[in-house]
Description:
Number of domains: 2
Shape: globular
Number of strands: 10
Strand order of the largest sheet: 3-2-1-4-5
Amino acid sequence: MSIVAGCDVGSLATKAVVMERRRVLAAVVVRSGPKPGASARDALDQALAQCGRSAGDVSYCVGTGYGREKIAFVNETLSEISCHAKGARFLVPSARSVIDIGGQDCKVIKLDANGGLVKFVTNDKCASGTGRFLEVMAKVMHLPVDRLGELSLQARDPVTLASMCTVWAQADIIKHINARRPAEEICAGINTAMANRVAMLANALRLENDICMTGGVAKNKGVVHALARILGQRIKEVKTLDPQLVGALGAALLAAEQAGKVNRKELPP
């Protein structure tokens, strides 16, 4: 039976989701390489191998992400906004707002009651408020990036970073390290600085509940909790799928819709 797929080529990670009848058969995340098309091919091949299928079984494939125009094998390319909105709504049907934090950008999306796009804002000019900010800060701390969230939840007296600028924040962190502030308090300060930057975008749209968070940073509970506190609103976490895969999921869902249209056109009158 034919299947559909979505490929999301991000700056730091490339994701692929394979679906059949709106059910996820396989999902893969790989590190993005210098060639977006090759990264997408690698991710999709791994996903197909995972579910025992081949490229010939794919009836329709949608590409998204910053590297989408470099994916030669897709049937169509669509914006990350459309794909993240579609994927988030599938996983959290009540979602009216989506906050997606990727490796080098942050997107805040507002939806209507039917899941249609109302408005969105993005931050792609500055590393603060993106996954890259956390990677740089984790390197200064000599910690794996996924430890930032775990440690920050243990903090009793988080530090305050004087600047959200990535360059100046590094200097600030070094100052706190030299002052022998506990690692968890510095991590909490990093996550709060990140959340403050994202909240500035979110407040510009006056988000409505329910809020869903997607992207790799959604796995950092320190950022999620800090952002919920700053916004004064609960954030619904994606639990049935890695939140980093939501864009690829949305691409696969949109691929299924397009495949359905193609099949209907091929039917005799």
